[in-house]
Design goal:
By secondary structure, the protein is of the alpha+beta class. The chain is built from three helices and three strands. The N and C termini lie far apart (57 Å).
Length: 74
């Protein structure tokens, strides 16, 4: 795990955040010896929250496919 000095962290903040995203966390050590941990925040949400996709299928076509499936397998 990479440990940045305070000065490095200030100068390379974007790199530090990307590394924290990739590796889980990074540490920053101040001149007085105190160490701080930077890690990405966990986003709470449903695993079922997925972005929709436009497949170009209309409502009528979906209803017909469901009806056909019910006729065939129901």
């Amino acid at each position: 795990m990479r440990v940045y000095t305070y000065t490095e962290a200030r100068q390379r903040l974007a790199e530090l955040l990307e590394r924290a995203k990739r590796e889980g966390e990074v540490r920053i050590r101040r001149r007085d010896g105190m160490v701080f941990v930077v890690r990405p925040e966990r986003v709470e949400g449903s695993p079922l929250e997925v972005e929709g996709m436009d497949l170009g299928v209309g409502v009528e076509e979906i209803v017909e496919l469901v009806r056909e499936g019910r006729r065939r397998y129901g």
